[in-house]
Amino acid sequence: MPVFNSLSDRLTSTFKNLRTRGRLSEADIDATVREIRRALLDADVAVPVVREFTATVRERALSAEVSGALNPAQQVVKIVNEELVEVLGGATRPLTLAKTPPTVIMLAGLQGAGKTTLAGKLAHALKGQGHTPVLVAADLQRPNAVTQLSVVAERAGVPVFAPHPGNTSDADDPAADAPLIGDPVGVARDGVAYAKERQHDVVIVDTAGRLGIDEVLMQQAADIRAAVNPDEVLFVIDAMIGQDAVNTAKAFADGVDFTGVVLSKLDGDARGGAALSVAKVTGRPIMFASTGEKLTDFEVFHPDRMASRILDMGDVLTLIEQAEKAFDAEQAEKMAKKLATGQDFTLADFLVQMQQLKNMGSMKKMLSMMPGMGQMREQLEQFDEREVNRIEAIIQSMTPAERENPKIINGSRRARIARGAGTTTTAINQLLERFDNAQKMMRQMSKGGGLGPGGMPAMPGAPGMGMGKKSRGRTQPPKKGKKGKSGNPAKRAQQEREAMQRALGGGAASTPSAPAGSAFGVGPKKDEAPDLSNLELPPGLEKFLGR
Hints:
alpha/beta; 8-stranded mixed sheet; 23 helices; SRP54_GTPase_dom; GTPase activity; GTP-binding; AAA+_ATPase; ribonucleoprotein
């Protein structure tokens, strides 16, 4: 995640230097711990957390578990990973649902932390799990907060309970006779009653925030909590606010006693390490992470997976989960059967696969979850997300026959496709060349390999396929030229005999002691036809054997 890129780069560099050493001395470990301390402090991690973390890492690194390890450097990385998981909260903590619906979830935090947007994301996620959430607009202080929540609820496809317009400007509501500020506690209480009446099983209460901590804010939040008796109180914190995150978290823990933390704006480019301190300082788990503006940019927080990302070990499990959600299982099975029967992977198939890839979200985000991709961050940043749309436009400008058999696309067809896609014939040529390489790879996979999650092939133009550059020279070795005739008469005669055997159907290795098709020199007798009756052949090949 971008907010932890700096920390990830520093730690990765430290461990890279560590791996160059065989046995580790106490001085080596001290130097490594010193670099880790600097990296964490530069990332805004709270000082008490840094002290405890580095002390534990040093103690374990000097113990027998490292000195007796076959690879001490890897053992130190393992220790740092385990301790980082502990700092982030240890285990994944799911939502606590009420035994008797509705489950009441209250959102708390400072103004601008992203509570309203998060309410929509959480409702959208719960709706996808089969729940029937309703949003309650109890933020009556911030201008147009109720209107914003209504818009977010509409985008998420969930209802909103908003009996009071809240604080609106004269331009928005010139005829409003109601006072600007209503009773947020009463709205929250009535929202829960509304959910029971309409049989919604989850209530998400959006509360007011302030630019800073004050008694009025805390009292109002405490009163709402007492009125609705929530099953979960989620403290929403901006991952980019720096060291003040710890003080804010402590104040809300004392005033509202939240049960879990949600990190928002993890897609930012600030240092963000203070957010990592919240779980350790407050003793409350981080439960969710918000990673963008879209409703789908929301995920359950897994401490072990986040630690792996920070240490540039990737997050393959989350990638697989996203693929399972985005890819159509029926379509994937159809694709697997097609390749298993030896049919070619076509541009039409590729278009379907690419559209499902788009459903997974940002290509950069997906690729960043692969192990070791931190070392290719510059290349990833240069990757243009619009390239997927351009490729899609090119394929959609082709006729069905051209998608099924790209070899019929001649010069005039390429010019027509380029005009239809609003691009150049050079772009068409590059796509067809990369697709040809992808098609060859799929043939190899159908013979002896397998497909990735959801039957997903590599995308022409994506990392691993040349990133838009020609890759023919790297994907297959150059063809060997035909050997000329030898100047040695005896050797030339041998070459002519081998050529005659090949012309008659034999091979260069066809000798009486090792007949063609025999691995151990034992085969059918001379002039005796081989028995092919028990061979299991793919459908359609029988006719070539005279069956």
